[in-house]
Amino acid sequence: MEKGYLCIVLHGHLPYVRHPEHEDFLEEDWLYEAITETYIPLINVFEKLIDDNIDFRITMGLSPTLITMLMDPLLQRRYLKHLESLIELATKEVERTQWQPEFHKLALMYLDKFKLTRHVFVDKYNRNIIQAFKNVQDAGKLEIMTCGATHGFFPLMHVCRESVRAQVRTAVDQYKNVFGRPPRGIWLPECGFNPGDDEVLKESGLRFFFVDSHGILHGSPRPKYGVFAPVYCKSGVACFGRDIESSKQVWSAVEGYPGDYNYREFYRDIGFELDYEYIKPYIHSDGIRVNTGMKYYKITGETDDKQAYVPETAMQKAADQAGNFMFNREKQVEALYDMLKKKPIIISPYDAELFGHWWYEGPDWLNFLMRKIACDQKTIKMITPSEYLEKYPSNQVITPSMSTWGYKGYNEVWLEGSNDWIYRHLHKASDRMSELVRSYPKAGGITLRALNQALRELLLAQSSDWAFIMKTGTHIPYAVKRTKDHLLRFNKLYHNIKSRNVNESWLNDLEYTDNIFPTIDYRFHS
């Protein structure tokens, strides 16, 4: 009989980037890389575990923007074109490296991987890999959560609670349409919680959410079991807190597993290293060098003299470190069980793209871990939040504190000198959206379309990704432009609706360009 539980949580999200007006748009590569390096590798791991009758549980958030992009026919076509280009490049690399044995076997590895990816994407799932995640959920092995509709940062939206409701209601509506059932849980964008947000979650039928460790530890009253048992908010919605120890072992590039010198080096890619004329057909059409995903070196150490990557050694390391992680969780659970006199739950959340994209061996590590937990020990058992709440429905009632999992644990990442200018505009737009809902309670025809599009534009402007990008200093012009473009579109719609002068041709263009959430209802913002 197990003494405790492990709940691994992966947060899958990308900002909504879809530009039909451009044939080749640089930032769309974020999605293509994620599909190739994270989402299809994870699907392959889950499906092989099921085929081998390995009992496992994993929890995964798929944000509404990510789901929309993965299901969008335009982006699916563009991704397939991108994948065909990678297969062509890998085929050339197999020939180019034939007299470099240490690189030749890696070129063959990438060629096989890209071909397998194409098989999964096209032949198995007809370009819609959301169906794969749905299948794993329907098999009872995966619990898929929703997220804020566009990853809006709730703690800085509290001045207009209607916008928080719109983020949640829109997300829940999409989830029901895609997965054929309501979501039980939500990953709060940036793990950002503000007391009272749980009431909004309750209104939409959500049962649980997650916060960083201090969100529970600084709650009131003090949590009896720390982060090792969920708590209930006064609304009755359950809150799970992140375990610091297990999380750090994985996500830290310095102290955690991904920094092992035998793992693949992320920052050495042939897109930046090979002769320009040779690589030109496989980078951005404007001639900008980009990552191809073909990387031939291992981390090696704090040196520029990198050694060739050896997959066999890396796989052995991943297996060893999966065993080490399991051993540490066993000892942690045993100590907590003796101290707490109840079975603890260890919550280990990570960004999904850590697995495969940033940490190439991450999906293999996860595969080894879940097999070892199922076959090599009996101290811990993997579980989903819903399963835990069914087993243990009685939990302490507290009010978690305002918190995020960002730098320093609060709002600084999304509210500081580089990005603070956006909020007065977002708040004004939120107020105007509420005004429109009150003024047009039962709209129809072109006014209904315009109101729905206004809410789409507001939600897209609220994405926390734009403030995050401004803070981190990468792709800043794009983040600024996206924020301004959506606000300008919203404000034009607002004035056109108020003056009963909506330009249908312009609205048609907007509905095609920003086509997210086809079943949206502007009254979600109320």
Structural notes for this entry:
It is a single chain. Helix content is 50%, strand content 8%. It has 526 residues and is α/β, with parallel strands linked by helices. It folds into three domains: 4-71 and 128-256 and 310-408, 7-stranded beta/alpha barrel, CATH 3.20.110.10; 73-120 and 265-308, no CATH class; 415-524, Families 57/38 glycoside transferase, middle domain (immunoglobulin/albumin-binding domain-like). Strands 1, 2, 3, 4, 5, 6, 7, 8 and 9 form a nine-stranded mixed beta sheet that branches. Helix 7 (197-203) links the parallel strand 4 and strand 5. The model has no long low-confidence stretch (mean pLDDT 96).
Give the number of helices. 19
Tally of structural domains? 3
Distance between the termini: 48 Å
Proportion of strand residues = 5-15%
Q: CATH homologous superfamily of the largest domain - what is it?
A: Glycoside hydrolase 38, N terminal domain
The biggest sheet, with number of strands, parallel, antiparallel or mixed sense and barrel status, is: 9 strands, mixed
Cα radius of gyration in angstroms: 24 Å
Report the average pLDDT across residues: 96
CATH class of the largest domain: Alpha Beta
Low-confidence stretches: none
The general outline is globular
